[in-house]
């Protein structure tokens, strides 16, 4: 009796394996597509391009394998796609975290530069610095403040890369003002 039971179990397992390889891996394909969608929502297209592209390429390869009725290969590509997409989401989150920290450091540096520029402007207003230098400096400082606000809004919106560009511009503007005022105060 036990031999028949063992044979029946073995035959059922073999039939299950053959059936599993005989049908398209819809569940795995759906999981891969879901992981790609999640990675896209996490910004992976922008912050983890290599991993994201690998995920989409693997999913395309899985689709092509299904069209060729090679379901085992399709399953492998679908699983690979899901793994790449999960990596892309993770790398994207890490990269955005690093960029956010850099943006926050830049904001602190800019606040210090702004304080220095305002201090030099106050000193310049009390001395015989040409009116044009003072007026240009005020405008530049006001523009830098606006840029800092835009950068802060961009960081809050999750567009850290755009914030970095604006912060860089504001930093250069404030450095130029400080240098111009230093020259005028000599």
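Q: What amino acid sequence fits the structure above?
A:
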């Amino acid at each position: 009796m036990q031999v028949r039971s063992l044979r029946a179990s073995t035959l059922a397992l073999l039939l299950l394996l053959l059936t599993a390889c005989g049908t398209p891996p819809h569940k795995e394909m759906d999981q891969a597509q879901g992981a790609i969608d999640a990675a896209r929502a996490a910004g992976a297209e922008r912050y983890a391009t290599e991993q994201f592209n690998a995920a989409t390429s693997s999913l395309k390869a899985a689709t092509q394998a299904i069209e060729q009725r090679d379901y085992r290969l399709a399953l492998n590509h679908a699983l690979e796609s899901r793994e790449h997409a999960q990596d892309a989401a993770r790398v994207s989150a890490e990269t955005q975290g690093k960029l956010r920290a850099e943006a926050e450091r830049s904001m602190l540096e800019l606040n210090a530069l702004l304080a220095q520029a305002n201090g030099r402007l106050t000193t310049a207003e009390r001395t015989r610095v040409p009116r044009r230098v003072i007026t240009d400096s005020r405008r530049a400082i006001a523009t830098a403040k606006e840029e800092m606000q835009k950068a802060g809004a961009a960081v809050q919106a999750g567009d850290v890369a755009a914030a970095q560009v604006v912060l860089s511009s504001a930093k250069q503007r404030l450095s130029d003002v400080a240098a111009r005022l230093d020259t005028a105060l000599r």
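Q: And what stands out in the fold?
A: The helical segments are 2-21, 26-41, 44-47, 49-67, 71-126, 131-157, 160-185.
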